[in-house]
Task: structure prediction
Amino acid sequence: MNETGEQGAARPGADPDAGKASERTALAWRRTAISSMVVAVLFLNHAAVDDWRATGTAPLAAAGAMLALAALCLARNHSLHAGRRDGERGAIVMTTVAVVLVAAIAAGLGFVDPAP
Result:
């Protein structure tokens, strides 16, 4: 099928992969959202195992950042499925900041509260 839904050859010069890049990008945002939710659950587990002590505030902050990142990624996924490509740079910057922040928290937890 071609771009218009008719059987036969595509128009000359038409990109046979048109729309697929956007779909792959949307799926990547969805995978990032799922990964962020998993990491948030792991940080919440760490805080719960730590009996919600004062040292549990860092994992809670990291879990909050990951949940916010998951919400951002899902919103980006939905906007790409709707055909909107606006806000791409802001979403990438916010994702990078959240990941670096959570990585720093995880590294700090590794030094402060090492595993037995």
The helical segments are 20-49, 57-81, 88-112. Residues 6 and 109 are 58 Å apart (CA to CA). The chain is about 70% helix and 0% strand.
